[in-house]
Amino acid sequence: MRSTPNPKARPIRAATSLAARVQQFVREAQVNYRRFFATSEPDLFPKIIERLTTAEAATYDIADLKSRIEKIHTADVRTGHRMDSSRRELYVEGARDRRFFSWTLRDTLAPSASVREIAFVNIAGEISGGERGRLFAFARLLSNSPANIQCFADADCDRVLNRPTPARVWLTDGRDLEGYVFTVDCLAKILQIALGADSVVPSDLLTEIYARGRAVGVLRIMSERTALELPFQVMGWTPPGLVFRHHCASWPHVVWGVSTQPKGESEMNATA
After folding, report:
1. Are 200 and 256 in contact (CB under 8 A)?
2. CA–CA separation, 69 vs 60, rounded Å?
């Protein structure tokens, strides 16, 4: 008894080379390209074929191509969230911020959630303010998007200067992420476990950090308000009397100290 062939079954085709399959695809697409391409731009495929077969070299504007690619990349992020509504992403300024959240959250981070660096998102146009500026620009692009995306950035001087913050941006409680370390418990752990400096009192060190840091903070705010653009990121600075004493015989034992004596050859300057 002969079995009735399934009308919905795919026809059995003889194995062919990749080159032959590409040739057949192009030939069939030339007849009716709408079977293979869905686009809002009319006659897109004929334009592609024309570019491939013409002897005239095409000319491109580099800035225009770069802008198009960056816009496509940002659109891809939003499209990915539309396709997967459970997807959640937190974008941060850099690798240190990402490592901080990864270490803090550890196994509690949901499988559908991730922490990403803003450096991996291409954003069209010239943006000032470094990675923080790019993070803010990305947040503004997503202002009307349903994507589950949030951004985390250093507060810097924004609260003091009453600067507006994009809706999708969370700011640190203090000036920056490093400020979360300045507690007695954190400093005690660093001093005792990492540095082996049992003789240093954490609360005294914290008081000293606040006293010296406040002057630097005022200077940074003044630089922001008057557009001095002082180079804090690249400038080495040693507060008067604040030194590292490096004991070579017991490295990594490093002791913070305050001294009015001239620095010796075995001392390393602390930088701001």
Report:
1. yes
2. 13
- When pLDDT is averaged across residues 20-30 and rounded to a whole number, the result is 76
Side-by-side strand order, sheet with 242-246: 254-258, 242-246, 267-269
The pLDDT tens digits of the residues spanning 80-128 come to 767 777 889 999 999 999 999 989 888 898 888 999 999 888 787 778 8
Name the one residue in this structure whose structure tokens are 């001093």.
Answer: 191
Sole residue written with tokens 């939003």:
78
User: At residue 165, what are phi and psi to the nearest 5 degrees?
Assistant: -120, 135
**Sign of the dihedral defined by the CA atoms of residues 114, 117, 119, 122, in that order:** positive
Q: Which range (31-35, 79-83, 187-191, 250-254) has the least confidence?
A: 250-254
Tokens 């180079």 belong to residue: 231
Cα separation of 110 and 144, whole Å?
Answer: 25
pLDDT tens sequence across 53-85: 776 766 767 766 666 666 656 666 766 767 777
CA 16 from centroid of its chain's CA atoms: 46
